[in-house]
Amino acid sequence: MKYFAYGMNTNTAQMAMRCPNAQSLGAARLPNHLFRFARHADVLPTPGFVTHGVLWEITDACVQSLDLLEGYPDYYERKTITVIHQSQQVEAMVYYMTGNVPDEPPSPGYIAMLREGYSEHRVLDRQIDQALEFVQKYHTGLAQKSQQIYG
Predict the structure, then answer these.
(1) Is 57 left (phi over 0), alpha (psi -120 to 50) or beta?
(2) CATH number for position 95
């Protein structure tokens, strides 16, 4: 089974702990999805955007382990969707946050884990920077509105 990771599961050491039998197939793209942070990484179906990540070959035991980690089905749900790997369309499992989770910055340690995973697989980390910039502006705006309302 194929699994597309865009968050902490891009990190080889993290995946080795959860899914020792997982095999990295390298960088891949998820078309028409926007990468964002809602304390953790998430993707939103959005035409015209592309999320970069890592494609893994995983086992059924890996799915069980990942489901536990991702809080499936309450925190993240999973779907099978088409990703692009080595110019080929591939069906892969992808996790999406459930509900309407607001944008929120992740911890510095979480960001470092993502950057390491992206680097290991030669995935450009520009989407991390863009999502961080957006969420920081979002939170700055909320703080300013709160200060205007409550003084």
Answers:
(1) beta
(2) 3.10.490.10
Residue with tokens 């059924």: 60
pLDDT bin (cut points 50, 70, 90) of residue 139 is low
Q: Is 60 exceeded by the pLDDT of residue 47?
A: yes
Q: Count of domains in the chain?
A: 1
Over residues 20-41, the pLDDT tens digits come to: 999 999 999 999 999 999 999 9
Distance between CA atoms of 133 and 95, rounded to whole angstroms?
23
pLDDT of 147 > 90? The answer is no
- DSSP helix/strand/coil, 59: coil
Structural domain boundaries, residue 60: 2-150
Contacts 24+ apart (CB under 8 A), 131-135: 131/35, 131/36, 131/37, 131/41, 132/37, 132/105, 134/36, 134/103, 135/36, 135/37, 135/103, 135/104, 135/105
